[in-house]
C-alpha cells in the first residue's frame, strides 16, 4: 500500500504572518502587499493586455484575500494562495478582454504551428534520422550551438525583444507556464497550484514551450 504524501504545513514564519493578518494587523497586511503586489500585477498581465486592468485585478485580489483569510486552511503557502487568487480573477477578466499579440518580429510566422497548442512533438521529426537509417532516432540536424558571447547577448536589446516575442507567441498555457517557471522563478508545485493543472501537464507544457523558444532563437542566431 502506498503511503499518502504528508499534508502541507505552513512555515512558522507564515503561521505568525497569517495569525497577524487574522488579527487585523495593518502592518502585516502592508508588508504582504509590499512583498507581492508587483508580482501579482505581472501575473494578471499574462491574462489581460492592459496594465491598468492588471492593476484593477490585483486590487480585487487583495480584497479577496481579506475576505478569505478566515477560510484559508493552509493547504498551500501564503504566496501560492495569493497567486492562485489573482490568476483565477485574471483568467476570468481576460475572457472578457480580447487579448492582442504584438508581432514585433514577423519572422516567427515561418515556424510551422508555432502558435498552436496541439500534441505536436517538442522537436520536429525531420531533425532525426528515420527508422530505415542505420542510426535511426539519432540527430539528422543537431541543434545549432549559440556561439555568441554571453555578456553581449545579455546586452543585446534586439535579441531580448526577439526572445520576448517568441514567448508572447506561444499558445496561452505554454506561455503562462514558461513565464512563471523561467521568468518569475516559480516552482513546479506553485505553478500547478496556481493554474489548477497536474504536474505532468505542467511538465509537458514547459518542455514544449522551451523547445519552441529554442527553435526561434536558433532561427535568429543562424
Helix content: 55-70%
CATH class of the largest domain: Mainly Alpha
Query: What fraction of residues sit in β-strands?
Result: under 5%
Shape verdict: elongated
Quickly list its features.
Arc Repressor Mutant, subunit A, Rna Polymerase Sigma Factor, Chain: A, mainly alpha, disordered N terminus
Blueprint (SSEs and pairs):
Blueprint: H1 12-22, H2 26-45, H3 51-68, H4 78-96, H5 150-155, H6 157-168, H7 172-183, H8 188-195, H9 199-221
Helix pairs in contact: 2-3, 2-4, 3-4, 4-8, 6-9, 7-9
Describe this structure in words.
With 222 residues, the protein is mainly α. 58% of the residues lie in helices and 0% in strands. The protein folds into two domains: 12-96, RNA polymerase sigma factor, region 2, helix turn helix motif (Rna Polymerase Sigma Factor, Chain: A); 106-221, Arc Repressor Mutant, subunit A (Orthogonal Bundle). It has helices spanning 12-22, 26-45, 51-68, 78-96, 150-155, 157-168, 172-183, 188-195, 199-221. Helix 2 (26-45) packs across helix 3 (51-68), helix 4 (78-96) packs across helix 8 and helix 6 crosses helix 9. The termini are far apart.
Amino acid at each position: 500500500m502506498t503511503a499518502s504524501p504528508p499534508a502541507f504545513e505552513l512555515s512558522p514564519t507564515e503561521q505568525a504572518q497569517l495569525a497577524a493578518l487574522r488579527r487585523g494587523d495593518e502592518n502585516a497586511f502592508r508588508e504582504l502587499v509590499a512583498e507581492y503586489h508587483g508580482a501579482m500585477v505581472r501575473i494578471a498581465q499574462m491574462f489581460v493586455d492592459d496594465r491598468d486592468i492588471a492593476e484593477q485585478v490585483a486590487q480585487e485580489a487583495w480584497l479577496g484575500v481579506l475576505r478569505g483569510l478566515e477560510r484559508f486552511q493552509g493547504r498551500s503557502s501564503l504566496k501560492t494562495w495569493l497567486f492562485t487568487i489573482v490568476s483565477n480573477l485574471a483568467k476570468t477578466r481576460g475572457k472578457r478582454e480580447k487579448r492582442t499579440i504584438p508581432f514585433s518580429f514577423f519572422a516567427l510566422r515561418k515556424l510551422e504551428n508555432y502558435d498552436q497548442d496541439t500534441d505536436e512533438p517538442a522537436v520536429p521529426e525531420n531533425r532525426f534520422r528515420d527508422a530505415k537509417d542505420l542510426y535511426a532516432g539519432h540527430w539528422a540536424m543537431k541543434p545549432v550551438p549559440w556561439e555568441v558571447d554571453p555578456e553581449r547577448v545579455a546586452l543585446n536589446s534586439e535579441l531580448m525583444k526577439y526572445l520576448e516575442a517568441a514567448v508572447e507567441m506561444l499558445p496561452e498555457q505554454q506561455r503562462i507556464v514558461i513565464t512563471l517557471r523561467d521568468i518569475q522563478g516559480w516552482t513546479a508545485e506553485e505553478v500547478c497550484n496556481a493554474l489548477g493543472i497536474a504536474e505532468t501537464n505542467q511538465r509537458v507544457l514547459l518542455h514544449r514551450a522551451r523547445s519552441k523558444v529554442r527553435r526561434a532563437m536558433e532561427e535568429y542566431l543562424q
